[in-house]
Design goal:
The protein has 312 residues and is α+β, with helices and mostly antiparallel strands. The strands form 3 sheets. Strands 3-5-7-6 form a 4-stranded antiparallel β-sheet. Strands 1-2 form a two-stranded antiparallel sheet. It has a two-stranded antiparallel ribbon with strand order 4-8. A hairpin with a 7-residue loop joins β1 and β2. α2 packs antiparallel against α5. The two termini are 45 Å apart.
Length: 312
């Protein structure tokens, strides 16, 4: 699981008439300070950490940025580069965690993602040993990249926000403001979403924009599940009430959320990055096959020198 919370604590504040404050301590997901870190929700409203001109500057302290957000992730064409088995394992973990948060009616959580690269002066053996140690220290929330040059740290944070009256009122106000500004479609990018919709958007973003799954999952329609109750939605589907009313569920997955992100993918830039990534993956596969051939030839040569017959 990517939900790593330590026990709940409380403390009494010192000033008069102050009550107890309860808080939860979360485990540190970064055993080493990453060069890049992102806080990702799939939302688009107020999800930019840098101004447009800051995105292109390079005179930051040691070229290390603060935690970036969804817009920066898409603006610079970021993607995780994981082995297929690791990607599938990570997706199953995130799906299970998101299902739990949805059942508990929680929202406003984020995927915390850190990218750490060892110093370039390290020897290959030292680099691989350090990456393996960081994965061990993370306790199952870190994965080494396919090129074995970096490690990704993952965690789900800010998981204690319940869909309370405050969030419901915030949703009503923000949607009304978007409608007055003639931007109703953009209201799907706010954080104040009912837990089923929030979970669906979060999973869709992770599957398609972070992990880039080859076969992204198909999400079931969720609108009516929170609006009227799951059993009412099922009854309306069975009786054909959607068709009679002229309105069905708004859909889910990419069908609903893709328009929030598609205009930020930088077109040809993203296409170039994807093409170069596919080329280098193919090259790695070719080198691995070539290494296997050389190892087989070397083994055969050693057997012939020892007077042993070649293995069949």
């Amino acid at each position: 699981s990517l939900l790593r919370s330590l026990p709940c604590h409380s403390m009494r504040l010192r000033w008069p008439w102050a009550g107890k404050v309860y808080f939860v301590v979360m485990r540190n997901f970064f055993p080493a300070k990453p060069q890049l870190s992102f806080d990702l929700k799939g939302a688009t409203a107020n999800r930019r950490a840098l101004k447009a001109w800051q995105l292109h500057q390079t005179n930051t302290v040691s070229n290390i940025y603060n935690t970036l957000r969804d817009w920066e992730w898409m603006d610079i064409g970021m993607a995780t580069d994981l082995e297929p088995a690791d990607r599938d394992e990570l997706w199953s973990i995130i799906s299970a965690d998101t299902a739990l948060l949805r059942r508990l009616s929680l929202l406003d959580y984020s995927l915390l993602l850190g990218i750490y690269r060892p110093p370039p002066t390290m020897l290959p053996q030292q680099k691989h040993a350090q990456l393996a140690e960081l994965v061990r220290q993370s306790g199952g929330t870190a994965f080494i990249s396919r090129d074995r040059q970096k490690v990704y740290f993952f965690g789900i944070i800010d998981v204690l926000e319940h869909f309370s009256l405050r969030w419901r009122l915030q949703r009503i106000v923000l949607r009304a403001l978007y409608c007055l500004a003639m931007r109703h479609a953009d209201s799907d990018g706010i954080s104040a979403m009912p837990p089923p919709l929030y979970a669906d958007r979060f999973q869709t973003f992770v599957a398609n924009e972070v992990l880039h799954l080859r076969d992204p999952p198909q999400m079931a329609p969720v609108d009516e599940e929170w609006r009227e109750g799951g059993w009412v939605a099922l009854l309306k589907r069975l009786t054909g009430a959607y068709g009679a009313a002229g309105r069905g569920p708004r859909g889910s997955g990419l069908k609903r959320w893709n328009r929030l992100w598609e205009r930020r993918r930088r077109g040809l830039v993203k296409q170039r990055i994807d093409a170069e990534h596919d080329d280098y993956v193919a090259r790695i596969r070719e080198l691995e096959e070539h290494i296997q051939i050389l190892e087989g030839e070397l083994g055969g040569a050693r057997r012939r020198e020892g007077g042993l017959p070649d293995a069949v």
